[in-house]
Specification:
Blueprint: H1 25-29, E1 33-38, H2 40-57, E2 61-65, H3 66-72, E3 80-86, H4 92-103, E4 107-112, H5 118-122, E5 125-128, H6 141-157, H7 165-177, H8 196-201, H9 204-214, E6 219-224, H10 229-243, E7 246-251, E8 268-273, H11 279-291, E9 295-301, H12 305-308, E10 315-319, H13 327-337
Parallel strand pairs: 1-2, 1-3, 3-4, 4-5, 6-7, 6-8, 8-9, 9-10
Bound molecules: 5-amino-5-deoxy-1-O-phosphono-D-mannitol.
5-amino-5-deoxy-1-O-phosphono-D-mannitol is lined by residues 39-42, 86-88, 91, 94, 137-139, 237, 241.
Protein name: SIS domain-containing protein
Keywords: Repeat
Organism: Thlaspi arvense
Length: 338
Amino acid sequence: MRGRLLHGRSTKAKTVILGGLKDHLKTIRRSRRIVFIGCGTSYNAALAARPLLEELSGIPISMEIASDLLDRQGLIYREDTAVFVSQSGETADTLHALEYALENGALCVGITNTVGSAIARNTHCGVHINAGAEIGVASTKAYTSQIVVMAMFALAISGDSILSQARREAIIDCLFELPCKPHLPTFPAHSSFCCKVRGVLELDQEMKDLANLLIAEQSLLVFGRGYNYATALEGALKVKEVALMHSEGILAGEMKHGPLALVDENLPIVVIATRDACFRKQQSVIQQLHARNGRLIVMCSKGDAASVRTGGSCKVIEVPQAEDCLQPVINIVPLQVI
Ligand code: M6R
């Protein structure tokens, strides 16, 4: 992740300025709902940002996979804001969904990585994520940058409510602590500047060793919930797309309703259990998986290895702790490396 994503958009005054949206902020704040539309990784990035968007905006947030919206001819109203998330800005399903939302009179916002792309051109307003070109088929840095931009979108539409001021400031501070390259003039002069993404990239060798252990497996499950349900879906998507191995992202809250039947001592399962409001629930999931002799790889916050090992032995990956809503930016990196 590069610092230029934040360049000029977030300041020491702890506000977020997204120039491409400023003339439409009032309309967005008055929307009946905000619908996020995308495919694949871009959809997952929006899913990761949804809890924060709901929390800070107070506006109902819906999620649509572009092809499904079109198949159903789902409802889009003129009082809606429809946000189109796409790395390339050219994905056919997302573009058709954009035409459909325009026909239905919604305010259309683009979040893309490609200046001049069809989605950037045809939306009413938008934000570029400035992640740099994605060279391979797998979208990786675009995913983390999309989450960051959607967090900034949430901050921009949340206005200046006193109630959420401390939360907004904590998120902005954490945004500055993520990038690998602190070369911006706007970076605060923190004496203890910590590059959390660099911290997690230091796990590179550990993740490669883990990948070597998994190479002969047929399948990998990834359990996540809350902010990290999207991490589970996206981690599984990367394993499928890059390692050509079956993998499934599972909402941990649904474990008892089917997936538990698959658990045995052979099938590797990644459980994402970093510190947030869902941590205790994830500890209980880990215990239930241990009770079925599950072969677990648990991702937890630094210092939490002992708290997630209760109930049995497992491989533990400790990652740097970030603000809960930005933790998905950190947590996806080891799964991308695998
Ligand atoms: O360019 P887009 O973000 O619109 O592409 C959407 C998906 O096709 C894309 O994210 C796909 O899932 C990725 N190749 C996954 O790495």
